[in-house]
Amino acid sequence: MYSRAVRRGRVPRRDADPVPCLLELALLHPDPDDMDWLVPTSPQEVMTRLLRGMHDEVSASQRRVGSAVAAVEWYAGLGRQVRPAAPAAEGPAIRVLDGLARIQAAMDEATQACTAEVLTVQPGGIRREAELSEGLHRALALRGRGVRMRDLYTHVARHGQGLLNYLELMGDAVEARTLDEVIDRLILFDRTVAFIPANTDRTMALELRHPAIVEYLVTVFDRLWRLAIPLKAPLPDTGIEGISHREQSIAALLAEGHQDAVIAERLGISVRTCRAHIARLSETLGAASRTQLGVRIAQAGLDGPPPSAASPSLSVPDQGSRTAR
């Protein structure tokens, strides 16, 4: 259209309607003698305008490059003045990993460097197949190098077939134990680097290499490990007829004043499942309300640690022959 306007001197306005960019770029403009026609801007003027714009862009880019070079030289000079506190290969003591891709890349790097031991805490109840598959390649690489792994889960994880299949695949390379509740996710490689979540949806993580922090986390893990029950061992009997181990844990958390949603999150179960257990607790203890349930929990000794086998029998109120040993 522009070529035709240059050859003919002008073109009807209606012919240029399908290409409004010609007017927007000022390649065509209305004929002052007849507004129904458009006349072209001379090619020489258009070229001059374009070259001027390109020149301005190049000049701005050169200024930005100059500023960047000056900044790099300035910071490099600071680096020569300050002696590093530790070898550069060790990396920063705390590094924020933003995004799943960066987290996985850092985990892969730590896996490749690991030679002896991996410790993990995996909260959240039954592990989803996607979670297990995401880390399977790292676990298999570790097993292939003879690295030993110890994993902590909640008791609820025992009911996940995916976890059982994973542990069977890993064989003796992995030892797993469970607790009523565990801390948030934690992964430790060779007691030198740890990974913990940095936000609630776990799209950010912290990579920790400070020896004092890592040693503290190792101590926390070891103490939880001693309290945990091997995955292949049965959960201890509560000693109270009609009340399961999970219901005993729920009763203790209810006695502490926690809401259903908090209890469910800490034990790794759904709120619906938690409320079903609370309903069975109420039925077993003969409680008609939450207030009465709290009283019955205290009377049955469920508001604290489980009683030992040598403890005297505790009668469950209004339940006839049911007793708590």
UniProtKB/TrEMBL annotation:
PANTHER family listed in its UniProt record: HTH-TYPE TRANSCRIPTIONAL REGULATOR TRMBL2
UniProt-annotated stretches for the region Disordered: 299-325
SMART domains: HTH_LUXR
Ranges for domain HTH luxR-type: 236-301
Pfam family, one: GerE
Any one GO BP annotation for this protein: regulation of DNA-templated transcription
Record keywords, A-Z: DNA-binding
DNA damage listed as a keyword: no
Molecular function terms from GO: DNA binding
Protein name in UniProt: DNA-binding CsgD family transcriptional regulator
Gene3D superfamilies: Winged helix-like DNA-binding domain superfamily/Winged helix DNA-binding domain (1.10.10.10)
PROSITE patterns: HTH_LUXR_2
